[in-house]
Amino acid sequence: MIIAIDGPAASGKSSTASGVASQLGFRHIDTGAMYRAITLKLIREKLDLSKTEDLKNLLNNLDLRVDFTQDGQELYLDGVQLGDEIRSHEVTEFVADVSAQSLVRQYLLGVQREVASKHDVVLEGRDIGTVVFPDAEIKIYMVADSRVRAARRQKDFARQGIEKSLDELEEEILARDAHNAKRKLAPMRAAADATILDTTTMSIEDQINFIVSKVEASKSNGGTN
């Protein structure tokens, strides 16, 4: 089974997807982390996104490995396991531009579909239910008030020792929403058959339970969500 969770930044996708996967015994494929890993590589290489051939060569020789443990997905870049460095402010500011590149999306599309072909999976991102897995059995589109999302992002940065105001973070989040929604390639939008889940006042536990209930209902109905 494939569970697709889409939505804007800080709507709760990653934590919820991880919890759903854990509760159901599925694999959680963190697609956002994959895009962040490539973004980190581009930053380290100081690669200019306008130089298509350079980007193509980098992807053709990219050493990005996906593993799974009981704790979830692990990413290795150039043989080194990635951690909080992919959540840095520098990566966060640049990842939307990187994820809009067709070469990057095509590369990761193959990675994601290969992993999903071997396991029951939960994936979260911007276009999982519309582009990556349009035939996913369960599709959820998560939304939340922009101020609430800014507060969530502020907590993430605080854990990294970064202080930013709510106003600044909300402005960045809204700009990123607009960028992702208006991009020509795989724009961020809800699939026509997705369930809209507003997480503004929901706890992570409530979000997880909602989706797990959808999965159980789907199974009892013969696979229709």
In short:
By secondary structure, the protein is of the alpha/beta class.
What would you say this structure looks like, in words?
With 225 residues, the protein is an alpha/beta fold. The chain has one domain (2-214): P-loop containing nucleotide triphosphate hydrolases (Rossmann fold, 3-Layer(aba) Sandwich). Helices cover 51% and strands 17% of the residues. It contains 9 helices and 8 strands. It has helices spanning 13-24, 31-45, 52-60, 89-99, 102-116, 128-132, 146-159, 166-182, 204-220, and strands spanning 2-6, 27-30, 64-69, 72-77, 80-81, 121-125, 138-143, 195-198. The strands form 2 sheets. It has a 5-stranded parallel sheet with strand order 2-6-1-7-8, with helices on both faces. Strand 4 and strand 5 (80-81) form a beta hairpin. The longest helix is centred in the last third of the chain and has 17 residues, at 166-182. It starts with a strand and ends in a 5-residue tail after the last helix. The mean pLDDT is 93.
Query: Into which percentage range does the β-strand content fall?
Result: 15-25%
Q: Uncertain runs with pLDDT below 50, 5 residues or more?
A: none
Order of helices and strands: EHEHHEEEHHEHEHHEH
List the total number of helices: 9
Which CATH architecture would you pick?
3-Layer(aba) Sandwich
Q: How large, in whole angstroms, is the Cα Rg?
A: 17 Å
Average per-residue pLDDT, rounded, comes to: 93
Write out the strand line-up for the largest beta sheet, numbering strands in chain order: 2-6-1-7-8
- In the CATH hierarchy, the third-tier topology is known as Rossmann fold
Number of domains: 1
What is the strand tally?
Answer: 8
Looking at the structure, what is the overall shape?
globular
| Main pleated-sheet profile | 5 strands, parallel
Any idea what the CATH superfamily is called?
P-loop containing nucleotide triphosphate hydrolases
